[in-house]
User: Fold this.
Amino acid sequence: MSEIYDITEVIRKLDRMLGKKWVAIVKKANLKLKVREGAYFSNGNGLARLRLTLRSILGKEVADDILSLAKPLAAVKREIAPAEIVVKYDRASIEHESKALIDPIYFSSLLIRASVVAVEKMRIEEFNLQNMLKELGLKSTETYFVKITHESGDVYKLIVDKGVVKAIVLERREGINVLGSTALEYLLKIKGVVEIMVLKLVFQE
Amino acid sequence: MLNLPGRFIALILLISLVQLLLKFLPLPNMVLFNNVVLNSEVVAETILVSSALIAFALWIYATVPYGFRSVFGRIFMGVVLFLGFESVGELLFLISHFTSSIEVEALLHVIGGFLFVAGYLPLYASLLMLLCEQRVLTRKPIESANVFASVIFVGTLGLVWAYFVLFASRFLSGAFNFYAVLAYTLYVVFDVVALMLIIPLVTADFRHGVLQVCIRELMVAVAVYAAADIFLNFSLLFGGKVWFMKTLATVMYTIAYIFLAKPSIAVARIERMTIV
Assistant:
């Protein structure tokens, strides 16, 4: 990320120390200075080049001491785009609450007042919960129980509260249950045809 | 320590050799204008004055971009003024050889002598500023042991001189001119004070930047100059009776001026220099 630095104090210090020789040093460092209302600005790359030049002239410690006066102002350009959020999840909750999904009593009590809001069959190339909820026309403000049955026979059960995964369990075809973040990792790798059933959960006041 | 390239050493050796040869080889005494005789001593002194003036000009060129407002600008300005006074003093002494009037010669000697003494004031100012800025120059502050050792070591030179002068005045009073001894003693005291200021700093652990290397070379050059000056004053005390002392002092002076000139080139092009 390239940043803009206010190097007015650096220039003043160099001026006090070396006089107008700082102009030659700045030119040698190939530093493109922007002057605005008596203040000097430079980007991070220019400052790095100035650091190298000053280290050669004044030694490492003195150069670093002078350049510590440079103040970072703001990031002006993001070189790397932020990664698209595929799944939002509550780490603490999925580690502790996922066990409840394999408890038949808790599970049945959860479903007493639930109502089916969507049943769909779709092909998944890259799992994205947010897109899936959008495609199914579901609101991100509600709490849902989502059951995803993969063509391989694996079944994923999730509780999604306001778009955030609160609990997850993977029931493997072989009868093994995988809980929490490990199950979430499997879900993120899922590909192929899946059957999705979504139940809207209603809690008593 | 000092990074002396081959060309620099060759230059010093060449000039020293020429000056020594001038002393040994019988140069035909050429009569110039006003019945002035151009002998080998005058040629050797001309080389000395030329090197002093070149050092002065190079330091002016190096110091101008630093200005007088900046810390190092002021330090370098002290060196420029020192070299200015010394080189003009040397020039006046050289010119005095070309005059037949004793009054003019005496006047040139008085002015030249005053310039030699006056040159030490800006030099002291520079050395004291360097001591104040030691944080920029050295990795660690100057050790008190170094200060103590340098004062004892350099002070001993002063004591030897004082003892020698007292001894000479007591037993060889007829052979020495009182005012000349006083003047030579004054120069030696100035040199001793300069060495006392330089040695603690030059023996400290310097940082590895171009500027610090230049300043260290400069201080070594001033130390060589001071040593040459002390040696010259010893030789002058004998009234030029021991010929090789005067010649060696002239050679040492020339070398000191070349040493003084050398860091000015790096200081002038500091942004283009790299430390290997």
User: Anything to note?
Assistant: The interface with chain B takes residues 15-21, 24-25, 27-28, 53, 55-63 of chain A (CB under 8 Å).
